[in-house]
Amino acid sequence: MRLKAKKAERHEQIIKIKTEYIKLDSLLKFAGIAESGSFAKTLVLEKKVKVNGEKCEARGRKIRNGDIVSYKNIDLKVVNEN
Fold it and tell me: Mind listing the pLDDT tens digit for each residue in 5-60?
């Protein structure tokens, strides 16, 4: 008997910002992925977050319009409202 691993569905969430950019750790807090700044910092430093498909460990990275930040099965797409 073979067991099939079930893949988690991906969920895309649009995050609207009114500034030119948002820092990665602030985005994780704003989107509700991290309850605190220290938890956001830990996620980034442990390379659990991807920016545009690449693992990122710079918590101050500037996330701009069109960037996609991924954590587990969640994709955050950043859209500038201006």
Answer: 666 788 999 999 999 999 999 999 999 999 999 999 999 999 999 999 999 999 89
Residue 20 token pair: 């030119």
Residue 78: enclosing H or E segment and its boundaries?
strand 74-80
Check residue 54 and give its pLDDT.
96
Whether 24 contacts 17, CB under 8 Å: no
Q: Which residues contact 12 (CB under 8 A, 6 or more apart)?
A: 74, 75, 76, 77
Rounded to an integer, what distance in angstroms lies between the CA atom of residue 30 and that of residue 21? 13
Q: Round to whole Å and give the CA distance between 61 and 41.
A: 12
Contacts of 44-52 with C-beta under 8 Å, sequence gap 24+, read 48/72, 49/24, 51/24
